[in-house]
Each structure stands twice: as structure tokens, then as C-alpha cells.
């Protein structure tokens, strides 16, 4: 029997789908996806052996839980198309779109708003989750089980969801730019590209793991690396001159504000 429906078979849908199948949360026969592009439909069938249709109602009508993975700009169209469908639980990953709007589009249904992130594809995702007004504790658990397959899950009040989007939703792009820039610096200093990227990736991964496992404050870690009169403090000085911290803070705030705008649109 089909249990999970996914509306919109794009990048994030595939990240989540690939993990839930790999983790045996659902089998391929329990998942149905809807996607308007025929070549993409075929791709998903070939890669995951799930049923993929061009008809959103086929997904919404036949499944216990629907993961909405379309762009926020398409939400109004989908809500109109699915009006009257008695889907039991809607889990939305749409940036910005508030629970009030999801519930207006799908009245009296269990609604859960989630902000996952791209590392979900390797099981290292970070998802924040907020319940709607008709969501039952069992439905919340159902959504948490699904998201646990793609990484960590934290429950937050809905009011914090746009801020979450700025940090962990958009954050992988900010970190990827940082890794690329560290690698570029290495190449500028004479390293071959492959080695420079390996060093940059492992340094970011190792630093994150160290902070996560030791609970060390990031400032304390920085202090441990900076020898008096040494190489690191020379680099830190340049980062402060270049406004790294301010640039990252402004990037998070810009993404937060854009998430708020998307909800109003
Ligand atoms: N990409 C990311 O890292 C993250 C994305 N999100 C959210 O996930 C959602 C999807 O984002 P992506 O996967 O990046 O976008 P995407 O563009 O890769 O996927 C959207 C999919 O929806 C399909 N689609 C378009 N119109 C449709 C319709 N009428 N009915 C059904 N499907 C339709 C598109 O063909 C496409 O495959 C967005 O709302 C975004 O805010 C949330 C967290 C992270
Ligand atoms: O850029 C976006 O709008 C989506 C939401 C968070 C990450 N990607």
C-alpha cells in the first residue's frame, strides 16, 4: 500500500527520498511521487523504483502523508488543484510559507512545517519542525521518524522558522562558498586543486565535528589554534579586515528576510 506521497520531484525531494529508501523507512512500493517534467519522472523511476505520476491528485488522494516539495511560488496553484482532497497529513518543506497559509489551503488537515537542508542526501541533514493547529502527537512522531532518516531533527516554534532557514536551510551554500574560497587560497599559494579541496573539506568537517563532540565554544577553538605571533592570527587579522563575520551574519539575515518575503508572496 502507498503510504508516502511526494508532490514535486526536485532536488530536495530526491535527497529525502534517497535516504528514506536507504534507511528502509519506506520501501519503493510504499512511495508515490508527482512531478510534471516527464524526463525527471523517468529519472526517479530508474533511480529509485518508485511510482512517479504527472498527476498531483493521484498522490494526495492515495497516501497517508504527503510531503510537499514544490517551490513556494507554486503553492497557491497546488492548493487550488488539490482543494477537497482528504489527505490526512501534509508535511511542507517550502521556505517561507507559514502554517496559517498551509492550513488555509488545506483546512482541517494535519499540517507540519519543516525546514530541512541539502546534506539530507548523505544523511547529515538538519531539519527544524513545527506543528500546525490540527496536528496530532502521532502525526508529529510520523514526520519526525521520516526526517530522522535524513539527519538531526529539532522542534521549534513556527515563529523561528524563517531564522532557521537563514542558518541551516541556506547555510550549506554559505559553507560551500567558504570551502571553495579556502581551496582557492590554497591554489593561490601553490597547491594542486585536488589537494587544496581535500584539505579544505576535511578541515571544515573536522572543525565542525570537534565543536559538536567536545562542546567547545568556537572562540575557544580559535584561541587554541592561534599561536602568539604565529600564522593563524595573521590570517584571522585578514578575515576581520575583510569582514568575514559581518558578511556571514548579513547573509543569514538576508536569507531570513527573503524567507519572510516568500511567505507574504
Ligand atoms: N534545495 C534546498 O537546499 C532546500 C529547499 N527547500 C525547499 O524545498 C522546496 C523544493 O526545492 P528544490 O527541491 O530545491 O526545488 P526544485 O526546483 O529542484 O524542485 C521543485 C520540483 O517541483 C516540480 N514542480 C513544479 N511545478 C509543479 C507542480 N505544479 N506540481 C508538482 N510538481 C511541480 C518541479 O518540476 C521540480 O522538480 C522549495 O519550496 C524550497 O524552499 C528547503 C530546504 C532546502
Ligand atoms: O534557496 C532557497 O530558497 C531554498 C530554501 C533553503 C535552501 N534553499
UniProtKB/TrEMBL annotation:
Keywords: Amino-acid biosynthesis, Cytoplasm, NADP, Oxidoreductase, Proline biosynthesis. It catalyses: L-proline + NADP(+) = (S)-1-pyrroline-5-carboxylate + NADPH + 2 H(+); L-proline + NAD(+) = (S)-1-pyrroline-5-carboxylate + NADH + 2 H(+). Residues 4-96 form the Pyrroline-5-carboxylate reductase catalytic N-terminal domain. It comes from the Bacteria. It is an enzyme of class 1 (oxidoreductase). One of its GO terms (molecular function) is pyrroline-5-carboxylate reductase activity. Residues 158-262 form the Pyrroline-5-carboxylate reductase dimerisation domain. PANTHER family: PYRROLINE-5-CARBOXYLATE REDUCTASE, PYRROLINE-5-CARBOXYLATE REDUCTASE 3. Catalyzes the reduction of 1-pyrroline-5-carboxylate (PCA) to L-proline. This is Pyrroline-5-carboxylate reductase.
